[in-house]
């Protein structure tokens, strides 16, 4: 196992002891995972739409599976590809989401520590259902799925969802042998509430024109996936906010002459860290990335019942959860809202092959944008696997599009 | 015309004389996209539940304007048919979260991008949980109650418990008759081919259940005197998702692989389990539809695997072909997991995943794959 975890172990060794909050957050999470592996402590897998506070409060080591592979990808661009190919060789079809294929392959290769239990919500799509069933089949780890109501406006939907959430707590208690301490959960939730507060403030600053920052709030994503409810997660978010505030106070902007504001209505392209910079060179900024859109209310921590209810409700409002779980109306509404609020001049949508829930009704996005006169680019790109569309090809498409937008 | 010949006909066309007669009498037709929508409730409302197909579609050009190439071709063809007005015999449509493809297909219907029969066209999206337990069955029952009320309100009808009981009995009768048909397929020389069975199953959702049941009873009598198929090379189990073109099975059977059972949507998974006739009808329907032999939309892989293994033994199959439409995520993952499990068996049943599109385009390629598979089996 130690050899298989070499990539993540080396990342930990490099980052451990770092003073900057972002690297410290990653080191803290990786350190926790490696410690759990070494000491045989329980590990719970969860996708990015299921937040880890319950696990943190139970002192069960969480692994946000998408984040695990993203760490590997930052060190070795082929890290995910090796896992994806392993999944393909085992019969998993190419058209399954590459995030998910990477998870299955990483489990098969042993490059992600095996789970003791898996807790999953049904958002944003069915690829996750398949993936965590496959991981459960491969490892024998018990699986709990919070069944997400499709239409949360239906009578009784929230009560049902809360029961599902309570079921997840019972499941984690049963399989970790630990009992939830609601005072501890309150502390964890108060910590994540602080993180959310900073997050929301940062998102507000990105509405400024010209924008002080372009591209994903990477520390927000990291805090959400690796350190939600931990002081390290909050510190990383706070540092990002302070940096943004500092830039605003000094009048610093992401580009000297902001010519176009791009609403990037999906995840960022994880293997192409210089894509946002490329757009900046063209005079375009990206003040909004869908994954950063964390417009949630703080969790009510007054009673255990309210904590669970409020936490469950928040999960439905999180990025991808909100626009992914139900009807496409929510996707279109949020896209148009983002254009208005973040003052977008255009929308770029990466047609990630696994995201049929996004592209399945692509024509409706096109019609909505056309009606409002918003230029839209949908282009083929896999957010994890760089072999589908090359960086050069992406840049050509984006440059042509942005040139047209800027010249309008 | 024999009853068998009569039942084979509806599969060839999108609509048929039974539906036309129904509509001429003023009857309403409500389409549904997935086997997780209880047809009994539509039937109890005095309407005809029609399982959606895209039969007759030759291209998806128009549908492709609204969707993307990574959507499965069944959905693309169905959307194309809808946009061309081929479903104008419908008065309404019901769908559920079968998969990411179907839910977006429904969104396009809902956005009014298709040719409706007449406005206002009835549309309903049913809440169907992804797992079966006491809580989810209660939630499903509340969703079915809302569905019932929505039908009542829209079509100005009343769905009584009596009517629901009657519909449940009729649909259970259909299921029992189909089970009797499948019983015949266990014989060394089954009197019916897999191609014919698929045609009958399509008829079972394309004509009024009362007439279907009567015809199927006659078919069962006719089959008693029929010579069985004995010149086959291998007995096969055909699994997978939506398959509504009998030509695919004919292609396999023309090569000598007799399909003696299946694990498909138009197949066992749709009719194997009965509804409890003695229980309160809505709860009984909720329980049956969640606990039935599941499709991969449900978090239930181990139970599906067990059912598949037992089925293969019961029908003494020589091989399993898992047909899967390209871009189908759920069956893509499931077919891989099934292969992992089969390989763990002491004597693994030969297994092949056969990728296909909605239209039978690459027939030569498929023939080669099936031929090679039959040779691998040693037949």
Task: Summarize the structure in words.
The complex is a heterodimer of chains A (408) and B (379). Chain A has 18 helices and 8 strands. In chain A, the strands form 2 sheets. Chain A has a 4-stranded parallel beta sheet with strand order 2-1-3-4, sandwiched between helices. Chain A has a 4-stranded parallel beta sheet with strand order 6-5-7-8, with helices on both faces. In chain A, β1, α3 and β2 form a beta-alpha-beta unit. In chain A, α9 packs parallel to α11. Helices cover 56% and strands 10% of the residues of chain A. Chain A has 408 residues and is an alpha/beta fold. Chain B is an alpha/beta fold and 379 residues long. In chain B, the strands form 2 sheets. Chain B has a 4-stranded parallel beta sheet with strand order 2-1-3-4, with helices on both faces. Chain B has a 4-stranded parallel beta sheet with strand order 6-5-7-8, sandwiched between helices. Chain B is globular and about 60 Å long. Chain B starts with a helix and ends with a helix. The interface between A and B is large, with 48 and 52 residues.
Features:
heterodimer; A: 408 residues; alpha/beta; Rossmann fold; 4-stranded parallel β-sheet; 18 helices; 8 strands; B: 379 residues; 15 helices; 48% helix; globular
- Residue runs with pLDDT of under 50 for 5 or more positions of chain A: none
Helix-strand sequence of chain A: HHEHEHHHEHEHHHHEHEHHHEHHEH
Q: Average pLDDT across residues of chain A?
A: 93
Can you tell me the overall shape of chain B?
Answer: globular
Strand content of chain A: 5-15%
Q: What coarse outline of chain A follows from CA principal-axis ratios?
A: globular
> What's the CATH architecture of the domain at 6-181 in chain A?
3-Layer(aba) Sandwich
CATH top level label of the domain at 6-181 in chain A: Alpha Beta
Give the biggest beta sheet of chain B: 4 strands, parallel
Main sheet: strand order of chain A: 2-1-3-4
């Amino acid at each position: 196992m130690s050899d298989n975890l070499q990539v993540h172990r080396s990342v930990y060794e490099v980052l451990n002891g770092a003073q900057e909050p972002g690297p410290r957050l990653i080191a803290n999470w990786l350190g926790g995972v490696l410690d759990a592996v070494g000491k045989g402590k329980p590990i719970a897998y969860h996708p990015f739409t299921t937040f880890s506070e319950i696990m943190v409060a139970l002192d069960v080591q969480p692994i946000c599976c998408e984040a695990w592979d993203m760490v590997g990808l930052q060190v070795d661009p082929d890290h995910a590809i090796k896992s994806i190919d392993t999944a393909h060789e085992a019969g998993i079809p190419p058209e399954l989401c590459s995030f998910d294929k990477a998870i299955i392959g990483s489990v098969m290769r042993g490059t992600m520590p095996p789970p003791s239990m898996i807790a999953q919500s049904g958002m944003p799509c069915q690829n996750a259902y398949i993936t965590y069933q496959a991981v459960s089949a491969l490892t024998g780890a018990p699986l709990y799925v919070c069944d997400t109501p499709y239409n949360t406006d239906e009578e009784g939907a929230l009560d049902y969802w809360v029961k599902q959430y309570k079921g997840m707590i019972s499941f984690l208690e049963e399989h970790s042998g630990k009992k939830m301490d609601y005072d501890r959960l309150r502390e964890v939730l108060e910590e994540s509430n602080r993180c959310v507060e900073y997050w929301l403030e940062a998102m507000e600053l990105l509405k400024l024109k010209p924008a002080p920052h372009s591209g994903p709030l990477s520390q927000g994503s990291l805090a959400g996936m690796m350190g939600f409810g931990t002081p390290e997660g909050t510190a990383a978010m706070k540092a990002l906010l302070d940096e943004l505030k500092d830039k605003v106070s000094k009048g610093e902007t992401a580009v000297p002459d902001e010519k176009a504001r791009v609403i990037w209505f999906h995840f960022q392209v994880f293997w192409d860290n210089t894509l946002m910079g490329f757009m900046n060179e063209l005079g375009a900024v990206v003040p909004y990335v869908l994954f950063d859109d964390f417009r949630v209310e703080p969790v009510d921590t007054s009673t255990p019942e309210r904590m669970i209810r409020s936490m469950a409700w928040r999960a439905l409002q999180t990025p991808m959860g909100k626009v992914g779980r139900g009807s496409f109306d929510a996707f279109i509404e949020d896209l148009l809202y983002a254009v208005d609020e973040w003052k977008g001049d255009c929308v770029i949508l990466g047609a990630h092959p696994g995201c049929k829930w996004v592209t399945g009704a692509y024509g409706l996005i096109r019609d909505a944008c056309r009606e409002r006169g918003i230029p839209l680019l949908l282009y083929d790109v896999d957010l994890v696997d760089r072999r589908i569309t090359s960086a050069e090809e992406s840049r050509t498409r984006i440059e042509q599009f942005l040139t047209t937008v800027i010249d309008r | 015309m024999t009853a068998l010949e009569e039942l084979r006909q509806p599969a060839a066309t999108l609509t048929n004389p039974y539906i036309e007669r129904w509509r001429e009498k003023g009857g309403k037709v409500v389409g549904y996209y997935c086997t997780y929508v209880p047809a009994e409730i539509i039937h109890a409302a005095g309407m005809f539940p029609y399982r959606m197909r895209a039969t007759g579609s030759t291209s998806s050009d128009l549908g492709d304007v609204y969707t993307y190439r990574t959507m499965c071709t069944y959905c693309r063809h169905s959307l194309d048919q809808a946009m061309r007005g081929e479903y104008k015999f419908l008065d309404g449509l019901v769908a559920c979260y079968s998969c990411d493809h179907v839910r977006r297909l429904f969104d396009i219907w809902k956005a009014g991008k298709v040719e409706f029969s007449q406005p206002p066209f009835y549309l309903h999206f049913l809440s169907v949980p992804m797992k079966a337990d006491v809580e989810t069955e209660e939630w499903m029952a509340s969703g079915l109650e809302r569905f019932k009320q929505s039908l009542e309100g829209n079509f100005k009808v009343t769905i009584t418990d009596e009517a629901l009981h009657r519909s449940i009995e009729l649909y259970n009768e259909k299921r029992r008759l189909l089970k009797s048909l499948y019983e015949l397929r266990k014989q060394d020389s089954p009197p019916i081919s897999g191609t014919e069975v698929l045609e009958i199953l399509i008829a079972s959702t394309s004509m009024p259940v009362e007439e279907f049941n009567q015809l199927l009873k006659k078919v069962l009598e006719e089959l008693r005197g029929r010579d069985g198929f004995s010149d086959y090379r291998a007995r096969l189990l055909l699994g997978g998702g939506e398959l509504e073109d009998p030509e695919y099975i004919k292609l396999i059977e023309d090569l000598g692989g007799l399909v003696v059972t299946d694990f498909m949507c138009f197949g066992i998974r749709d009719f194997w389990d009965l509804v409890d006739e003695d229980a309160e009808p809505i709860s009984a329907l909720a329980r049956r539809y969640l606990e039935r032999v599941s499709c991969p939309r449900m978090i239930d892989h181990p139970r599906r695997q067990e059912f598949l293994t037992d089925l293969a033994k019961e029908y003494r199959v020589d091989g399993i072909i898992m047909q899967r439409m390209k871009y189908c995520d759920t069956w893509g993952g499931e077919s891989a997991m099934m292969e992992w499990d089969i390989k763990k068996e002491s004597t693994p049943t030969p297994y092949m995943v056969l990728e296909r599109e909605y239209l039978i385009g690459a027939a030569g390629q498929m023939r080669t794959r099936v031929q090679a598979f039959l040779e691998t089996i040693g037949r």
